[in-house]
Amino acid sequence: MESRFTLTDNEIGARFAKRFGTASLAVIQSPLEKVTQELVSLRVSQINGCGWCVDIHTKELAAAGEPAVRIHLVAAWREATVFTEAEQAALALAEEGTRIADAAPGVSDETWARVRKHYDDDRIAALVALVAQMNAANRLAVIVHQKGGAYEPGMFG
């Protein structure tokens, strides 16, 4: 499967990508811990089958010094002992916010209560924005068949 299209090689695509990247600064510059941002981004990308984004977020976690066992267990976080309660709440929100069509209520009240227990309003806003933006980023990359494997940590600053 070859890449279909390079969005940034097109004027409209490049303008969109620039604004999309600028919007992500709200999350990047938020008080939400960088490791939590990467764990959530990785889990959303795994669910959506986005090889490009899985590549990015596994490598960013490794570059940040995260142990391999935590990176490898993100896909099975419920059956792992290596994540904090706060990280588990964020991962539950990521899954339920990504699999909206799979469950009538979307994000359950139980998951929302877990998130509220561990995060303040600024971090919750960042989590919600991150889940939404990662889902959009995954869809962009999957639609054009953007391949994983070539990403270098820090590539996007």
Task: Describe the protein's architecture and organization.
- Helices cover 63% and strands 0% of the residues.
- It is mainly alpha-helical.
- The chain has one domain: AhpD-like (Up-down Bundle), CATH 1.20.1290.10.
- It is globular, with a radius of gyration of 15 Å.
- Pfam families: CMD.
- GO terms for molecular function: peroxiredoxin activity.
Task: Describe the protein's topology.
Blueprint (H helix, E strand, L loop, with lengths): L10 H18 L5 H15 L2 H13 L4 H6 L11 H14 L10 H10 L2 H23 L14
Protein name: Carboxymuconolactone decarboxylase-like domain-containing protein
GO molecular function, one term: peroxiredoxin activity
Q: Keywords, please?
A:
single chain; 157 residues; mainly alpha; AhpD-like; 63% helix
What Rg, in angstroms, do the CA atoms define?
A: 15 Å
Tally of DSSP β-strands: 0
Shape: globular
Average the pLDDT over all residues and give the rounded result.
94
> How many domain modules?
1
Classification by helices and strands? mainly alpha
Largest sheet, strands/sense/barrel: none
CATH superfamily: AhpD-like
CATH topology name: AhpD-like
Determine and state the CATH class: Mainly Alpha
CATH architecture: Up-down Bundle
Give a nutshell description of this structure:
The protein has 157 residues and is mainly alpha-helical. Helices cover 63% and strands 0% of the residues. The chain has 7 helices and no strands.
